[in-house]
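Form 12-C: Joint structure prediction
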Amino acid sequence: AQSVSQHNHHVILSEAASLELGCNYSYGGTVNLFWYVQYPGQHLQLLLKYFSGDPLVKGIKGFEAEFIKSKFSFNLRKPSVQWSDTAEYFCAVNTYTSYGKLTFGQGTILTVHP
Amino acid sequence: NAGVTQTPKFRILKIGQSMTLQCTQDMNHNYMYWYRQDPGMGLKLIYYSVGAGITDKGEVPNGYNVSRSTTEDFPLRLELAAPSQTSVYFCASSAFGQGSAGELFFGEGSRLTVL
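Section 2 - Result
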């Protein structure tokens, strides 16, 4: 079974700082990778996804992620964060044999100070 | 387009009571899922369904049951509620196998407290 590990539980940044959130997965086969965001009191929303092609994926709100297969990683980046990016971020993976079941990481809480 | 709709949004139960969380989707997705979210633990899969009449256990199924009589509906039943079932529950659907990578579309969530 696959698993997902997010390196940081809580990240605190000032506005305009750059962001990188780490995500590693364990699975030897072909995977689809996702980053979701959850704003306080809300449900999860898709930021971006990778399933094939260019390993650098661009998502909504200026976020991007890079799939590095050799490192089993899918790190999320944003060049300049805003106060409105304060939220919890989840990395997730599925495989073609998993019936679409997503396995989630533990989540990273991002706090951005104005 | 409503997407995934869950009810109720909030509920307080006493230990030993039972209840059903309702979930319906209008996107004609074959795959549906129930997750629970606990602080610092991410989301854990309770049950899933790949189509009407077909359900299977996820990672944490104990104390729960599901049914899938139609493509649209996927209710989650809690029998004999316990404090350990205090959580936020999310229903989701996916077009996995229908030309999609399987991104999940989530409902708004149901916050359940068992006292």
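Section 3 - Comments
The mean pLDDT of chain B is 94. The longest strand of chain B covers residues 43-51.
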